[in-house]
Amino acid sequence: MIYRPVPARLPVPAGLGRLVVLTTVFVCAACGLVYELELVALASYLIGDSVTQASVVLSVMVFAMGIGSLLAKRLRSRAALGFAAVEAALALVGGLSAMALYACFAWFGQARLALVGFSLAIGVLIGAEVPLLMTLIQRIRRQDAGGAVADLFAADYVGALVGGLAFPFLLLPVLGQLTGALLTGGVNAVAGGALVLWLFRGDLSARARWALLAANGLVLAVLAVGSALTVPFERAARHAVYGGDVRVAVQSGVQEVVLTGGGRSGRPLSLFLDGRLKVCGEDEFRYHEALVHPAMTGPHRRVLVLGGGDGLAVRELLRYGDVEQVTVVEVDPAVLRLARTDPDLVALNRAAYRDPRVRVVGADAFEWLRALPAAAPPYDVVVSDLPDPGITSSTKLYSQEFYGLVERRLAPGGRLAIHAGTVDVRPQVFWTVDATVRSLGLTSRPYRVSGSGFTTGPDRTSRRSGSHGGGTGWSFLLVSRESLWLRLPPVRPYLQSLSPKGLTEAWRAAERGRAPGMPPSTLMHPRYAD
C-alpha cells in the first residue's frame, strides 16, 4: 500500500511553512550531533581509549538510526504528532544522557552498558526524524522525491556542522558536559514542540494539543531541575569517585584535575588527572626516584622534562647542585598552577618552581620539540614523565616520530628516561615502547620497581577512592645513543627506594619478561591498544 500524504492546513503561506520546517530540521540536526559528541567525549573521559569509545557510539548510533527509520514508517499517517513525540523523547533522553552516564560510573563503577543503551536510544529517535520530516515537507507542497531529499539533507548537514562546532568551542568549555547536554535538550524540545503546535496545529485535536503541551512542559521542567542540580550532583558524584576529601576540582581545557587528601584530612595527598591517579603522596618518591636518578649518571648540566607538571620529577633533579637548567614542557596550565600554589603539593615538590634554574613552557611536548630551532642547545638528560601510552591522546608521545624528535635534541652521551607503563600488567605496551626507541638505532635498558602502580593504565581509577588501580609497580626505560649500563650516581643519603643492587635487580626483573619481535609504534600505525 502506497502512503500519499494529505495536504496540510497551514496558518502561513506554503513557502514560509517550508522554511520553518527546514529551520527545525537544522536545529534538530545540531542537537542530535551534540548528543553524539557528548557521548563520545564523556565515554572517553570516563572509560578511556577514545578511539574505541567513538567507534562504539558511532556504530551503534548509525545502526539504531536505521531501526528508527523503519519504525517511523508506522507513524507517517500521523506524522506531526509522531514527530512531536519523537522530539520530546529525544530531548529528554539526550539531555539527561550525560548525567545518567556519569551517575552510572560514579555509583556503580562502570558506564559501558549505559553508553550502549543511550547510543541505541538516541540513534533510534534521530533515525525516526527523517521519514516524519519528509512526510511533513511533502504535505506542505508536493515535489519530486529527489528535490525534497536534497532540501532536507542540506538543512540536516548544515545543522550537524553547527552542532559539531558548537560542542567543542562553546558548549563544552563554557557550560561543561552536563549543563551543555541539558541545554541542548531544552532547545530540542522547544524546536520540535513549537513546529507541531504552531505550524501543524490543524492536524491535532484539542486533546492532542494539550497532551503535547503537557509532555513538552514536563520535559522542560525535568531538564530545568537537572540543570539546577548540576553543581550538587557533580559534587556528590565526585565524592563517590574520589572520596569525601576532595579539596580541588578543576576542569581545564585539557583534562579534569582533582586533588584529594593532604592538610588535616589525615590521608596522603593524591592528584588525579581525568580520574586516573597520577600522584599518591604515600609512595610517589619510589616512582620519581626510579624515573630520574638512573639517567643522572653522566653529564646533566641541561635537563628537559616532558610532562611532569606536578614538579615532583623536577624536585629530584634539583637535588643535583651541578644541574644548571631544567626546562619543563607541560601542556596543562591548571597542573602547573596547582604545583606552584597548592600548599600541600608545593610542600611535596619542595617548591621546585621557585628555583631560578627551572624554566617552564606551556605547550604540547610533540609540537614544542618539532618547533624547536635546529641551533637550540642540546640536552644532557631528557625525562619523559607523560601519561600512559594506552591513552589515545598520548600515543603520539610514544611514537617513532616523537622519539626521533627527542633523539635530535640529545647531547653526545645524553640519556632519555621514559615511564612506559607496567610490564607486569601490560607487557605488550611496555615492550612496544622499547621496540619503538630501538627502531631508531638507540640502546635501551628496561627496569621495573615495586609500588602502588599509579599512572600505569589507560582506564580511570576504580570508583573506590584511594584505590591505586591494582597495579604492581612501574616500569621504565633508560635510553641512549651509546651503549649503557644501569647505574646510580654516587649514593646520596636522600634516596629512599633505590640502591645500586636494587637497580640491578630491577633490570633483571624486567628482562626476564622481554617480548622479542614487537613492531614499533608510529603516528600512522599506533600499537598501544590492548
Automatic annotation (TrEMBL):
Record pathway: Amine and polyamine biosynthesis; spermidine biosynthesis; spermidine from putrescine: step 1/1
Broad class of where this protein is predominantly found: membrane
GO MF terms held by the record: spermidine synthase activity; thermospermine synthase activity
Cellular component terms (Gene Ontology): plasma membrane
CDD domains: AdoMet_MTases (cd02440)
Pfam families linked to this entry: Spermine_synth (PF01564)
SUPFAM superfamilies: MFS general substrate transporter, S-adenosyl-L-methionine-dependent methyltransferases
Region (Disordered): 511-530
Keywords for the protein's UniProt record, in alphabetical order: Cell membrane, Membrane, Polyamine biosynthesis, Spermidine biosynthesis, Transferase, Transmembrane, Transmembrane helix
Residues passing through the membrane, by range: 12-35, 55-72, 84-108, 114-137, 149-172, 178-200, 212-233
EC id: 2.5.1.16
Active site, UniProt feature: D385
Function: Catalyzes the irreversible transfer of a propylamine group from the amino donor S-adenosylmethioninamine (decarboxy-AdoMet) to putrescine (1,4-diaminobutane) to yield spermidine.
Subunit note: Homodimer or homotetramer.
Protein name, as recorded: Polyamine aminopropyltransferase
Species, as recorded: Streptomyces albireticuli
